[in-house]
Predict the 3D structure of the following.
Amino acid sequence: MPLPFRIFKLRGDGSQEFVEEAHTLEYARVSVGEIARLWPGEYIIQNEETGERVSIPQAANRTR
């Protein structure tokens, strides 16, 4: 059975690349933060049950 939250990375051409599934929105947000350290960019978290989507713009694209 699929988990309720799916994480996608937005590509430069606007398409989405599936990254992973998560049990909760909180876990999905933490996962995006960890993934974005190695693979910066914009991410979408989608709730498969409701269709609601959360955009996380330019994750980890910050100067240090």
